[in-house]
TrEMBL record:
It comes from the Eukaryota. This is NAD(P)-binding protein. InterPro entries: ComplexI_NDUFA9_subunit, Epimerase_deHydtase, NAD(P)-bd_dom_sf. Gene3D superfamilies: NAD(P)-binding Rossmann-like Domain (3.40.50.720). Pfam families: Epimerase. The lineage of its organism: Eukaryota, Fungi, Dikarya, Basidiomycota, Agaricomycotina. Residues 10-83 form the NAD-dependent epimerase/dehydratase domain.
């Protein structure tokens, strides 16, 4: 493994579900961590507790859409992880429902997403998929590149974007995953025009991310999808798999998918999206992943300069060293 000297890290959204796990994992590796968020408050558990590790993080208030609010930090860090994202455009109500374990509110948000009613963000860009999933990442990446002008780094400075596998359509609107892919391509396009050897883009694509205590409502779904993925792997060769049928039907019904993304940069050759049936096929074959495993893989990717491009669930499990060889599933690390 080729180690990159990431001793100082900026986590955008470090007080969130995935961001806090990344902060904690980075601290365990001896990395100095700074978090930037709209509130600037330290992470607290759903019950309001403040873990001891939070005292070791520098918590700053700033806007990802206006990185000048933390430009001095960008100039000082060796790597950036962008964790902001929204699954449903409802002003964060679904996140609060999951955090509280409120099934009724969560179902209400999901139904609102499916049927498109009661969207408080309709007609406004603030808090939209474009605003949070895509534009915030592009603005931070631009500022990160600007912070390195006139400097030479011995190893590529990593910009890691927490993206997603395409497993939520049609329950979740297509714009969720589209804006994730647009962010990936926009970041890679910017990095490809920077000085050679100075930056590398890594695009972490988790499936359903769960935690039994902090996100108890995700546990039943995680158990179902994990069982589905396990059963899928055990189907003997030669017997058609449900996912194969779904991919076949998806290609037949939508041969020219409107979600197809063409001319993707080299590390993002698999950025194209198929039909919603392809997304369902992904959901029943790609296992869920624990938030701590996402965080551990992200921190390993920070320190390994050979990791770049798309990192799917399979690659994440390989990075943390516990998925057996016969269970490889997702995109391997691109060089």
């Amino acid at each position: 493994m080729s180690a990159s000297p990431v001793r100082k890290l900026l986590v955008v959204g470090g007080n969130g579900f995935i961001g806090s796990a990344i902060c904690r994992a980075a601290l365990a590796k001896g990395i100095q961590v700074t978090s930037v968020s709209s509130s600037g408050r330290p992470y607290t558990t759903p019950k309001g507790h403040t873990p001891a590790w939070t005292s070791k993080v520098t918590w700053l208030k700033g806007s990802a859409h206006n990185p000048t609010t933390f430009s001095d930090v960008l100039a000082d860090v060796h790597g950036v992880v962008h964790t902001l994202g929204t699954l449903i455009e409802d002003g964060g109500k679904y996140k609060q429902a999951i955090r509280e374990g409120n099934v009724t509110k969560m179902i209400g948000s999901a139904l609102g997403s499916v049927f498109g009613f009661q969207n408080p963000l309709k007609g406004s860009s603030e808090g939209s998929y474009e605003d949070i999933n895509r534009d915030s990442a592009l603005r931070v990446c631009e500022a990160f590149l600007s912070s390195g002008q006139g400097k030479q780094s011995p190893k590529p400075r990593p910009f890691i974007y927490i993206s997603a596998e395409d497993v939520f359509r049609p329950i979740i609107p297509a714009r969720y995953i589209e804006t994730k892919r647009e962010a990936e391509m926009g970041i890679e396009a910017m990095l490809s025009t920077s000085l050679p050897g100075q930056y590398r883009g890594v695009y972490i694509r988790p499936s359903l991310v769960y935690h039994a205590h902090y996100r108890p409502l995700t546990t039943p779904a995680a158990a179902i999808f994990d069982l589905s993925a396990s059963l899928h792997r055990k189907i003997p060769q030669g017997i058609p798999k449900p996912s194969q049928l779904l991919h076949y039907l998806g290609a037949a019904l939508s041969p020219q998918s409107s979600l197809s993304i063409r001319n993707a940069p080299g590390p993002l050759k698999d950025a194209s999206l198929g039909s919603p049936l392809d997304s369902i096929a992904n959901a029943i074959t790609i296992p869920p992943i624990h938030v701590d495993h996402v965080a551990e893989a992200t921190v390993i990717a920070l320190g390994d300069s050979t990791v770049r491009g798309v990192v799917g669930v399979g690659c994440m499990r390989e990075l943390i060293g516990w998925w057996p060889e016969d269970q490889h599933h997702s995109t391997q690390k691109a060089i």
